[in-house]
Amino acid sequence: MITGHGDDAYLYEDIRMDFSSNIYSHADLSELKAYLCGRLDVIGHYPEPEAATLERAIAEQRNVATECVVVTNGATDAIYLVAQAIGNYLPDSRRCEEKLCFKIKHPTFSEYGDACRVFGMKETEESGLHTSIWLCNPNNPTGEVTETAEVLRMAHEDALVVVDQSYEDYTIERMISPSEAIAAGNIIQIFSLTKTFAVPGLRIGYVIASPKWAKRIRRSLRPWSVNALAVEAGLWLIRHQKKAVTDMDAYLAEAQRLRTNLLAIEGMEVLPTKTHFMLCRMSGMPARELKERLVCKHHILIRDASNFEGLDEYCFRIAAQTPEEDDCLVDALRSCIHKV
């Protein structure tokens, strides 16, 4: 899905508060920017064909073997590379294409299904030898977290489990560790420096998997797919660990306060969440119309979630920001309701 994601402020002229992206919009990037200003000479040379230097840094930070890490051009690139590796290497996949399937719990990020279909897989509700299970944890857009024991159970019972942990740093719930995934042998993890450090324009993701699966994924890498500035930024971020949110407990408490205030609005439903974003539903007003009202009257942007499979036209997603901005959102939503 090329369009229809959040953070589409480029479509509007005067967005002052952005709740549409799951990335915290107030991260302090000043030190990173200053560092990159001093490294601009790298744009005059090709980057490494594979981002091997950054892979070594991530492997050291994650305490895994370098051969288990594959750096990608953002987490979405990782999703497509994993799907391609599965399509190429699952047993007998070319001879038994009708049996090559993927399993997804909806609603979730659309790119899992899109990527699997690109590489010849069909969606199923069944498990089996030729089925890969795709899991977003924490899940976008619901904020639900699947417990580590459940992830390991799925890996024990099924052929292959792909876990996208792009939002792992936006929850205090325990996630499956890279060492646990590698030891299982059939768990592939996807991570996003983009989201952890709030640098979506740089596109830095990576995969951690067993040596066997990492090698298969690496075979589909495009040369020079991770640009030189992204590699420099990734190395600096891994070294300094300047995460987007400095006090996660306080931020998650603010997200829960926002949810409580939203639930006080007549006709509003908000799913429970274990992260900073939440799925909402406004009865009586389609999300597309609500989004346009908030943009035009309040310069506020939300994520129309009606294009997630399994959701209807009234669903939207927001991510908590500052307390002041969150209060503005609640007031703006309330005023929209009163003008229905």
What can you see in these coordinates?
The chain is α/β, with parallel strands linked by helices. It contains twelve helices and 13 strands. The strands form three sheets. A seven-stranded mixed β-sheet has the order 2-8-7-6-5-3-4, with helices on both faces. It has a four-stranded antiparallel β-sheet with strand order 9-10-13-12. A two-stranded parallel ribbon has the order 1-11. α6 links the parallel β6 and β7. α3 packs parallel to α4. The longest helix has 16 residues. The chain is globular, with a radius of gyration of 20 Å.
Summarize the topology.
Blueprint: E1 17-18, H1 30-37, H2 52-62, E2 69-72, H3 75-89, E3 101-104, H4 111-118, E4 122-123, E5 131-136, H5 148-157, E6 160-164, H6 178-184, E7 187-192, H7 193-196, E8 205-208, H8 211-218, H9 228-240, H10 248-263, E9 268-270, E10 277-282, H11 287-298, E11 300-301, E12 303-304, E13 315-319, H12 323-338
Parallel strand pairs: 1-11, 3-4, 3-5, 5-6, 6-7
Antiparallel strand pairs: 2-8, 7-8, 9-10, 10-13, 12-13
Helix pairs in contact: 2-9, 3-4, 3-8, 10-12
